[in-house]
Specification:
The chain is α/β, with parallel strands linked by helices. It has 2 domains: 3-71, no CATH class; 76-222, NAD(P)-binding Rossmann-like Domain (Rossmann fold). Helix content is 35%, strand content 20%. The protein has 8 helices and 10 strands. Strands 7-6-5-8-9-10 form a 6-stranded parallel beta sheet, sandwiched between helices. A 4-stranded antiparallel beta sheet has the order 2-1-4-3, with helices on both faces. Strand 5, helix 3 (84-95) and strand 6 form a beta-alpha-beta unit. Helix 3 packs across helix 8 (207-222). The chain is elongated and about 60 Å long. It starts with a helix and ends in a 15-residue tail after the last helix.
Length: 237
């Protein structure tokens, strides 16, 4: 790979933007197609499908036989709430290939002892979330039951095009949450993106069962047919 192409590719990956390297099999020539440029590329159908699936592979095109090498950001799961559900959810998500971060300003809960091998940030969401690069490759889960923590976190997540947003709480609890979020200027369309009550309805009761239900719903959302501008996240590298 040419140095200029590698430099450009690394810049896209560092910024958590998807890209595809197109290699002409006959000549060996390569070019980089950034995700934002796919719609204008002559190979748009093949590139869009490869980006949607997250899988590299050979394609027969009008340009000849090409190999498309797909680079998508590692999916991440951001959780507000260092709670019992989080203790079960984090290892499940890591097993599925997610980078996991837990945010909770309550230092009694947000401790390395309770969350081995998981990034834990003991700060308020307005400080902790902006540096995390929350984006369309992010699943966001709010689990504290504390509006002072979950509400600003949800506002941030809703502004960042996460592919999944979920919040713990009963329908009555969520109705109160909806009213608070509306008072902060969020629209019905914005708020409708929140999965609440969170998780698939499998009759989950224990923290571990709820974690399974949440991860199942995240996976279901992940595998849905995406919109044209929303590539599918590749959960396992």
């Amino acid at each position: 790979m040419r140095l200029d192409l590698l430099t450009a590719l690394n810049a896209e990956r560092a910024a958590r933007r998807a890209a595809i390297v197109v290699t002409d099999v006959a000549s060996g020539k390569q070019r980089l197609v950034k995700a934002a440029a796919i719609a204008r590329d002559p190979l748009k159908p093949a590139l869009a499908e490869r980006l949607r699936s997250g899988r590299s592979g050979m394609e027969e095109t009008a340009e000849g036989r090409v190999f498309l090498t797909v680079y998508v950001p590692a999916p991440q799961l951001v959780i507000t709430g260092a709670v019992h559900i989080s203790q079960a959810l984090a290892p499940i998500a890591k097993l599925l290939g997610y980078d996991v971060t837990i945010v909770d300003p309550r230092t009694a809960f947000a401790s390395p002892e309770r969350f081995a091998d998981v990034k834990v940030i003991a700060e308020w969401p307005d400080q902790a979330l902006p540096p995390l690069g929350i984006d369309r490759y992010t699943a966001f889960v709010a689990l504290t039951h504390d509006p002072k923590i979950d509400d600003p976190a949800l506002v941030h997540a809703l502004s960042r095009d996460c592919f999944y947003i979920g919040a713990l709480g009963s329908r009555k609890t969520h109705a109160r949450r909806v009213e608070r979020l509306k008072q902060q200027g969020l629209s019905d369309a914005d708020i409708s993106r929140i999965h609440a009550p969170i998780g698939l309805d499998i009759g989950a009761i224990s923290p571990a069962e709820i974690a399974v239900a949440i991860m199942a719903q995240i996976t279901e959302r992940l595998r849905e047919e995406p919109q044209a501008d929303r590539p599918l996240v590749k959960a396992v590298s």
